[in-house]
Amino acid sequence: MSHDDPTHGPVPLGAVDAAPLHAAVDRITAALHEYVGAAVGVRAEFGAAEADDDPRILALEARIGMLNGQLYDAFHDALGTHPDVTSQIWEPADDDGADDDPDVRATEADVFYLGYVVGTPRTTTDATLDGVMEIIDSAGARIAQQLLDTGFHVGEWGVSRGEAPDFFDEEDDE
Which superkingdom does the taxonomy of this entry point to (predicted)? Predict the structure, then answer.
C-alpha cells in the first residue's frame, strides 16, 4: 500500500468508480448473513462455549476478518482513505455524562488499538508468553507518556491478552 500515488494527494480525485467498494460491502454482507445462519444453527445444537469454538464459526469469523481487510484495502486503493469501519465500540448505557472526566467531555476522543500476535520463541529461552504482557505494558506506559507530553488527554490505557481492552466495562467503575 503505497502512499506516494495520487489517491493520497491533496488534489480531489474527481469521479471514482464506487462499484468495487459496493462489491466489497456486498461480500461482507453475504458472509455476515451466512454467519448468522451458522451461529443460530450451531447454538441450537451446542452450549455457548462450544458454539464459540465450533470450527464452522471460527472459519466464518476468519473469512469475515479477511473480507474486512479487503474492504479496508478497497477504500485505501480507490480513495486513499484509512477507514475505521470495522471497529467494535459500545456506548456507555448511562450517557448523562455526570461522572465523566470534564477534560474528556471537552475534547474529541477516539479509541486506538495496537495489537500483536506473538508466538513462542523458536530457541531455548526463559521467555514465556506471560512475559510478553510485561514488555507490552512497559511500552504502553511510554506511549501514554509520549501522548501526554504531546498535549493529548489520555483518559485510559490498558493492556490485555486475547482481546482488546474493554474501556467501557461498568464493573471496573465499582
Answer: Bacteria
